[in-house]
Inverse folding.
């Protein structure tokens, strides 16, 4: 009988402690909410364009084919119509070089670079 009395006192203490000053015990049973998705508005998809992150910035790049490395070479821009504008790619001239390192450089509107 004494063991049963101690059990009741312990259960009463746990119950009162759970109902006491903190709701943390009961919060354990509350339904979990998913974090809000910025691409949805009230369960309806909306246009979502994440910020650009250049994950390759500063990483070493190796390309098997780059224009103008061994000698000047001609390349043409692709367009909807035939005969897009053509240019010369030349590693020896800074304005005409397009090294693979341009793939991972910073986006700078004052220094537009392109790998070819």
């Amino acid at each position: 009988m004494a063991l049963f009395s101690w059990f009741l006192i312990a259960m009463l203490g746990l119950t009162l402690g759970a109902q006491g000053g903190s709701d943390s015990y009961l919060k354990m049973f509350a339904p979990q909410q998913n974090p809000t998705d910025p691409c949805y508005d009230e369960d309806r998809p909306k246009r979502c364009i994440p910020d650009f992150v250049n994950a390759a910035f500063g990483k070493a790049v190796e390309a098997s084919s780059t224009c103008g490395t061994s000698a000047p070479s001609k390349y043409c821009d692709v367009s909807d119509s035939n005969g897009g504008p053509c240019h010369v790619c030349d590693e020896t001239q800074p304005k005409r070089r397009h090294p693979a390192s341009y793939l991972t450089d910073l986006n700078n509107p004052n220094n537009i670079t392109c790998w070819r």
